């Protein structure tokens, strides 16, 4: 077979995959649209409006009939937050909303991020008060509404809903503010626009090289607005015919305009300059002071036979410094050597889970509801938990989702960060403890029948002290649930420094499952269940590897710790690298899907779970 024939065959497969993906996307959008209720504006007895607020973006109006129908719908459905989607919302905005929002699934998914149309929001006063927003200023733009619904969904995780509102009128959509919209939704405008352009280019190539499948894919993409919205009940986009006819041209111009939009306001947000100055002051003395002396023996078994497993910079945030993970040849324990000091950990954790990185971390954690429920369900054959302490809870996402599995269980959380208090304010946990687990163990002795440590133990300086603390806190016969990255993963050896679970510089220890089982047995625990394939983190070994490599090739020059000047050229280079990575993301997505299937089938993967019971005596 000639190279030309092989290329044509590959293009046909790509075009067929595009047809399949577009068809599935169209069906999914139709299904989600069908799940979106329409407000009943017919006159009827409605509950009092007292106790509710209608918050609208500038230029958006809603008549009294719509307000009364919205309150009646919220009360009837048990909602405290109701996003009102204008029935005449433009076609592309409606499609964009349906790509992000599954009205039925997001209603029951306690951790799903809140998405809305950005026009009108009906909110119970009690939720606004609990969120500390009862005296907030009115929204200045639709972007403020996007941010607001994301926040309020966290305070009403099972009481947030959406409805089409024929009586809500909105000004025409301005394509020039798409970058602002995406940022407000927590999405990267540059990367998504580059992906959109790559998709258009792929359709053109398929039409040229594989006309039959390529034209089918192009036609499906072109006609998608009409296929989703034309026969639907409820939405009546005034621009549907025009949006369908001009879709490829509009997509091209919108993507190009979004890429040209400045990534941030010319004026820096409050605190940015001070944060940059603080980082630069710390970095003047270098990063060597953040490390302890290198140790010559294994912290797990004390054997002196060590070998370098991997060396890498900070691929996550791009902060200065280089890190080494060494492996014990006797027991297989992998650990950071030299280890960071407490001051070093503070420096490298800063602006990751909170501050600058808090929003991104929350979005990632909010997309793992299925994993959280699987963890909680592991206890079902063995016990019914009553009092559960989640150690390393961060903002309480696991506890929030686990309530759907164990609705009568009291969930408390412990963490070093401030997020544990926010989790308590949201109602995701009952009580939050801020501090080190070993230091709080005596205070919490015997209070809990279940303790969990999900991707926590690898962050700690002394895993043995953490296990000893769990022994103290658990009542006799209590259960300990642990999930960890698996350093024996074959993918870790394949990807080297770009394997995300190495997670440098945060991960201090990565222990093979055999080592952890021995440590548990030495403390009187009996292992009841062990999972490998079921614990596999399917959120993307290869996707993460592409992202880490792209970040290494072109680090963000706007980061306050950046060691290179922030110039337009460096920003353009970063955007170019991110754009060139788009095809790699597509290939990585396919590899990750295959990897997840293989992990489930072979009981392998990148992580493992152990459930152990403490002795009764």
TrEMBL record:
Record carries keyword Glycosyltransferase: no
Domain of life: Bacteria
Keywords: Methyltransferase, Transferase
MF term (GO), any: methyltransferase activity
One record GO biological process: methylation
CDD domains given in the database record: AdoMet_MTases
Keyword Transferase (UniProt): yes
Pfam families per UniProt: Methyltransf_23
Protein name (Swiss-Prot/TrEMBL): Class I SAM-dependent methyltransferase
Source organism of the structure: Streptomyces auratus AGR0001
Lineage per the UniProt record: Bacteria, Bacillati, Actinomycetota, Actinomycetes, Kitasatosporales
